[in-house]
Recover the amino acids of this structure.
């Protein structure tokens, strides 16, 4: 492992020790764009000390299915900052996504992708767009908890947690505060997912009140994503959960025309990783023609993250000035807006020759005028009173008449628990279902205390039960030949219902 100090002297860090960075040169075009990026960092006076690590294809092919060796984890945990070039995941089964492994193992809860238009040098319909998408990175449907429950039904659990929401939402507001952004937009689908997306929205509203100087708004993800694609100039910082963020951040990069130019940061409480958003581009590897801008922008975010904002601004401004001057790599070269088609290394040299210059057409970078550091407080859990009110028992049943299973289950009386309703794919089919509702082999049967009201037209009334009643019920269902595939307990927390009602309940 080679280690060297890139530069000890910078204007703002003259007396500080260098920031240690684990540097992965990656695969494909990775080494070329990393060399170009490091050369610029060195010339600009970034006070960092790289320690090289190996990630990706060679590690996979050596028989390590995770793509990362044990010693590498140690270096990452010691250095805490990673600058990573793209890697190639070998074709074939059994290789785990290294990015997902890194994100989850290191608790990199926020994915931050700033994207701004570089018009007219990079074609886009939105010359004014300048958006930062902040995506939750660890939870949601990406928790990877999936099960096949019946022959016809598979399930993926969407996990949204209060600490997860608080961290990402606070990060978004702090980011806006530190980088002088004016508005944070939350995107959710809480008109449908009232508990999961509802929690994200609720936490957003709570935390927004602590930042009165920053505008806040919430949009439903479908119309929000459509508006973002149609009028990205109207957005500033967007914060959302994992799956929506995955989609929205790609939309934003695509419409800016700069998929090859954007960088991203994965931020955790202790570790942060910076990389380009594109892949290892094996089709152009080894030709010295790749555009290193994505990784350069990632490195700029890294410098800002470690507090070297003066150097970050200096590199960003020189990069913008180079784009303006028309020195472009092949991917963005065009007769009208380019002066010269340059190689990867020539592009880096052009940037170096402009260090200290400010762009004339673009708004210059001003991160050093930011306000302080992003601090995320530790989560503190409040105590709440949790009361058990019933149970949803999921049954694999191959019949197709809800009346038949409904009548059979209605006869079961286990320690005062009684069938309240049955849904199939969330739609109530018993009692009083609609003949037209399609039923699969997955029946959600809600059992509550006998005293609960059924179909009064009023909000349902639930009374507390004991866990022993559920155990007895399950035992009885099993004895009667029902194939129980899973249960979900129904709780209320501080008197607030902690489960959704069935459609039509
Ligand atoms: P890709 O982003 O590597 O390439 C897509 C197209 O864009 C190619 O035509 C490529 O030549 C071009 N391109 C990408 N980056 C460029 C650059 N900097 N300059 C000029 N042109 C550029 O996507 P892909 O082909 O789908 O994936 C290739 C490999 O990269 C796969 O093994 C994939 O798993 C991996 N990948 C890695 C990461 C990562 O490490 N973060 C991300 C995405 C894909």
């Amino acid at each position: 492992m080679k280690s060297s100090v890139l530069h000890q002297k910078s204007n703002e860090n003259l007396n500080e020790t260098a920031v240690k960075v684990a540097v992965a040169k990656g695969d494909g075009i990775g080494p070329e764009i990393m060399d170009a990026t490091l050369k610029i960092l060195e010339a600009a006076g970034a006070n960092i000390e790289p320690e090289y690590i190996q990630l990706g294809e060679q590690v996979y092919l050596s028989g390590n299915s995770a793509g990362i060796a044990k010693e590498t984890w140690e270096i990452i945990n010691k250095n805490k900052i990673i600058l990573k070039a793209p890697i190639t995941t070998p074709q074939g089964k059994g290789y785990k996504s290294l990015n997902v492994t890194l994100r989850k193992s290191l608790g990199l809860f926020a994915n931050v992708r700033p994207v701004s238009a570089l018009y007219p040098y990079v074609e886009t319909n939105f010359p004014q767009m300048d958006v930062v998408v902040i995506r939750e990175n660890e939870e949601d449907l990406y928790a990877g908890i999936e099960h096949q429950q019946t022959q016809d039904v598979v399930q993926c659990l969407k996990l949204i947690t209060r600490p997860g929401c608080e961290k990402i939402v606070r990060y978004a507001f702090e980011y806006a505060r530190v980088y002088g952004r004016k508005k944070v937009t939350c995107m959710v689908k809480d008109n449908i997912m009232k508990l999961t997306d509802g929690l994200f929205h609720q936490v957003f509203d709570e935390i927004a009140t602590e930042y009165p100087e920053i505008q806040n708004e919430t949009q439903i993800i479908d119309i929000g994503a459509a508006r973002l694609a149609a009028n990205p100039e109207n957005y500033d910082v967007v914060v959302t959960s994992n799956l929506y963020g995955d989609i929205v951040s790609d939309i934003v990069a695509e419409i800016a025309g700069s998929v090859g130019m954007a960088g991203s940061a994965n931020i955790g409480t202790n570790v942060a990783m910076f990389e380009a958003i594109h892949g290892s581009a094996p089709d152009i590897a080894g030709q010295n023609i790749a555009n290193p801008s994505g990784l350069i922008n990632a490195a700029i975010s890294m410098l800002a993250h470690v507090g070297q904002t003066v150097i970050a601004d200096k590199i960003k401004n020189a990069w913008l000035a180079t784009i303006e001057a028309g020195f472009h790599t092949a991917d963005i070269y065009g007769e009208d807006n380019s002066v010269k088609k340059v190689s990867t290394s020539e592009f880096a040299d052009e940037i170096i020759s402009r260090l200290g210059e400010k762009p004339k057409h673009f708004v210059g970078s001003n991160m050093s005028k930011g306000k302080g550091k992003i601090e995320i407080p530790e989560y503190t859990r409040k105590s709440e009173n949790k009361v058990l009110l019933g149970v949803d028992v999921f049954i694999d049943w191959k019949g197709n008449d809800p009346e038949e299973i409904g009548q059979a289950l209605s006869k079961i009386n286990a320690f005062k628990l009684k069938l309240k309703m049955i849904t199939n794919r969330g739609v109530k089919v018993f009692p009083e279902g609609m003949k037209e509702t399609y039923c699969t082999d997955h029946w959600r049967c809600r059992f509550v205390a006998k005293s609960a009201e059924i179909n009064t037209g009023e909000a349902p009334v639930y009374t507390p039960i004991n866990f022993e009643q559920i155990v007895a019920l399950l035992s009885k269902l099993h004895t009667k030949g029902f194939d129980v595939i899973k249960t979900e307990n129904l709780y209320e927390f501080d008197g607030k219902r902690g489960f959704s009602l069935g459609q039509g309940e």
Summary: The chain has 13 helices and 20 strands.
